[in-house]
Design goal:
homodimer; about 100 residues; alpha+beta; Arc Repressor Mutant, subunit A
């Protein structure tokens, strides 16, 4: 990954917070809301963007007649996160020469 | 650094590209323009934001009667960059447990 190819997923605090939360395992909407302290509207919009970009997968189902939304990181998302960190590490390494 | 405390400096591709370029040493405006491929207006605006946040220092001088703008990362900026990378490494590490 090059600096000019950073995915949009890593370009706002909220999207990065969502990805970070999902790195450790899948979370439902309520959990993500609590972690990120975002509004329903904003969180929903960012989740949709991350899904469209292929970083996360969203599963909607009914549990006891109530809608439940569960989000999980995809392999692609995980790989991109790792590449992003590796790129930053490389930049930092260059600075220390 | 916590995910909710990521500085704005690391939240857009252009600002991150500027910081990355400066990590390896000071650069003038022309050099940064070439590296980032940003417009004069946008580059100038983002440099100002990074200066206001204390991440970079901007020096303006006249060389052969022409204005020259040189940008350098501050110790604070360098420290914040390192903390940002360390936070991401930590998140990635948690995911791999």
């Amino acid at each position: 990954m090059e600096i000019n190819a950073i995915p949009e997923a890593f370009q706002t605090k909220l999207r990065l917070a969502i990805l970070s939360a999902l790195l450790t395992g899948e979370k439902n909407f309520k959990e993500l809301k609590k972690i990120t302290e975002a509004t329903d509207g904003n969180l929903g919009a960012q989740l949709k963007k991350l899904e469209e970009a292929g970083h996360i997968a969203i599963r909607k189902e009914f549990v006891n007649n109530k809608p439940k939304t569960t989000c999980a990181m995809t392999d692609f998302g995980r790989r991109q996160f790792r590449e992003y960190v590796e790129m930053l590490e490389r930049l930092l390494g260059q600075a220390e020469i």
